[in-house]
Amino acid sequence: MFIDRAEELCLLDRLWQSNESELFVLYGRRRVGKSALLRKFCCGKRHIYFVASEIGDQLNLAQFKEAASASLCDPFLQSVAFPNWFATLKYTARASEVGRLLVVIDDFPSLCKSNRAIPWVFQRFWETEGCYANLMFVLCGSNTRFMEKVVLGENSPLFGRRTSQRKLEPLPYYEAAKFFLNYPPKDKLKAYGMLGGIPAYLEKFDPDQSLKDNVIRQMLSPGGFLRDEAMFLLRMELAEISKYASIIGAIASGAIRFTQVADRSRIPVTALTKYLSSLMAMGLVERRESILEWTDEKHSETTLCYGSNLYHGTSLYHGASPYHRTNLYRGAGLYSGTSLYEEDYPESRSAFVERASGTAGTALFNEVDYAPLFEHVADRRQRGRYYIADKYINFWFRFVQRNLSLIEGDGPRVAYELKIEPYIDDYMNRIFKDICCDFVKHRWHTVYGEHVIRVGEYWGNRFDIDVVAELDDGRYLIGECKWWNRPVGFDVLRDLLTRGNLLRVEAGLTRAGLGSDVRLVSQRGGLEEGLTAVPVIFSSSGFTEELTELGHKGTVRLVSLEMLLD
Asked: Angle at the Cα of 31 (from 29 to 37), degrees rounded to 5?
């Protein structure tokens, strides 16, 4: 099944129609659909499609000749044996004299492993003959580090020769969902959360079987295509597999800070950066930063240490902090804990907003005597958060790898019912935030006609916001994402607007769209005039009547699963 890739096909077609010599570089992780895209593009065109292998240079030369002979039916090829790659490439230039020719070399890194001189041979060919021929050459590879360094890098002999390039990314969630047309909306997104946008994985799930049965058959059962795929990917690209697997397992289990990953993976901080860099280069791990930096004018230079370390790394309230968590917000008389907006604080949100907010337009914590605790870490890696970018890898390490003994002992179905099914909604909370950010980034303009400049999450000193996006007119979207099994109500909106008001102070956005006009929602549901922050609520299970009515009035933008998938 070939789905989407319209943008990539359009780019390839534009290069083909140029009637000039073109050198196109296509790369991306394994199974992402590069070969399927190129084979689709080759249809109806005069072409040579060659897949290189690590089988030795002479065998690759012979197989290229066979591929050319099968496609072009040139009698000349029956009586010639190419002695080397320069002669082979010269033949393609000659073959293009009778009509435009498309030449695809798939798995170019394997060809270079068989003959390390290939990049220099190709450079010589392109400069002397290729750039004058009626050729479209495509170099394709899955080893992203190799392609970026040896093919595209500034020290590469091929640097500056390519006319276009593309890193093929996984399918977005709304295209991946098309593989499961018979599934209910929630199961479509769950399948995406388990498999990501990798076409080769999406095709393995049978849309006529339940999600549960597909997971058991393909991911948990011996012989399932996805049972050992994760470790296969790592072995194909990396050495020291145990260290990389430990890092991925640590992040998948919830270690998102640099020092947390080091502690849980048992890898020294001094060595961790090297491994993380390799995983990020492969597209398996990503490092994110808050879309906005939190600031505080009064205490911007304040640092509070104990001993010789600043909070022993990145945690703001680490261990034996001199200010106990229960005293941090002593002016407001709040609860102990690390997050202001935990679900289990003892006061109802409405009562909390009424008592602590003060007048409209006043920052919620202006009257709170909080301790001046601020995170000032010279090494910016400490301020970022690490996530598994590949959703299949994330799911496999969270649910399959850690439960292999149970899977082998009690069987795949028991393991699914005990260790996956009860926790899948918790897993989807993080996935749903990513989906909502993707919706704002890629589809917001189509739905609402507003241009988004940038989008991300906000991680502040006292609270987080799931989605923050800057619009081209200077306004900001502030969004809450709820993967719940019940409708979202008015209390979520009130909480979101409270944090939107705080964002003006904490992130210093007075001059950037969240100015003094930001208001808290009133007790009767109306918003004060002049609101420059646009509240958005994403829900997996719909909205209450009260919130739906506010959505109709334009008080809040409500995005349902149906809108996300439309």
From this structure: 95
Q: Are residues 412 and 525 in the same domain?
A: no
Strand partners, 135: 101
Question: Does residue 351 lie within any of the structural domains?
Answer: no
Residue 146 and residue 35 share a domain: yes
pTM of the model: 0.80
| Contacts of 26 by beta carbon, 8 Å cutoff, 6+ apart | 34, 37, 38, 138, 139, 140, 141, 165, 166, 168
CB neighbours of residue 1 within 10 Å: 9
Higher-pLDDT residue of 381 and 534 is: 534
- 389 class by beta-carbon count within 10 Å (0-12 exposed, 13-18 middle, 19+ buried): buried
3-state secondary structure of 370: coil
Distance from the Cα of residue 55 to its chain's centroid: 35
User: Rounded to the nearest 5°, which phi and psi values hold at 139?
Assistant: -105, 125
Q: Give the separation between CA 277 and CA 283, rounded to whole angstroms.
A: 10
Q: What pLDDT, in 10s, does the model give residues 158-178?
A: 999 999 999 999 999 999 999
Q: Is residue 531 domain-resident?
A: yes
- The CATH number for 501's domain is 3.40.1350.10
> Do residues 500 and 477 touch, judged by C-beta distance below 8 A?
no
Would 359 be classed as within a structural domain? no
Say if residue 396 is in the same domain as residue 441: no
CA distances from 94 to 89, 101, 139, 445 (A): 9, 10, 19, 48
**CA distance linking residue 317 with residue 319, whole number of Å:** 7
CATH code for the domain in which residue 203 is found? 1.10.10.10
Q: Which residues of 100-111 are buried (b: 16+ CB within 10 A; e: fewer)?
A: bbbbbbbbbbbb
Q: Indicate the number of domains in the chain.
A: 3
Q: Of the residues 167, 188, 216, which one is the last residue of a structural domain?
A: 167
pLDDT-wise least confident of 215-229, 366-380, 489-503, 535-549: 366-380
Whether residues 279 and 409 fall in one domain: yes
The verdict on 72 and 147 lying in the same domain is yes
Q: Which burial class, exposed, middle or buried, applies to 124 when counting CB atoms under 10 A from its CB (0-12, 13-18, 19+)? A: middle
How far is residue 522's CA from residue 361's CA, in Å, rounded to a whole number? 12
Distance CA(442)–CA(87), nearest Å, equals: 46
Q: Quick one: 516 and 542 in the same domain?
A: yes
Residue 369 lies in a domain: no
pLDDT score of 504 = 74
Same domain membership, residue 412 and residue 276: yes
Q: Using one digit for the tens of pLDDT, what is the confidence trace for 3-18?
A: 889 999 999 999 999 9
Q: Are 417 and 509 members of one domain? A: no
Q: Is residue 478 within 8 Å of 503, Cβ to Cβ?
A: yes
Q: What pLDDT sits at residue 314?
A: 37
- What range does the domain containing 203 cover? 174-289+384-424
340/188: higher pLDDT = 188
Identify the CA nearest to 3 among candidates 54, 31, 40, 30. 40
Which amino acid does the sequence have at 196?
Answer: G
Q: Residues for the chain: how many in total?
A: 566
| Dihedral sign, Cα of residue 273, residue 278, residue 284, residue 288 | positive
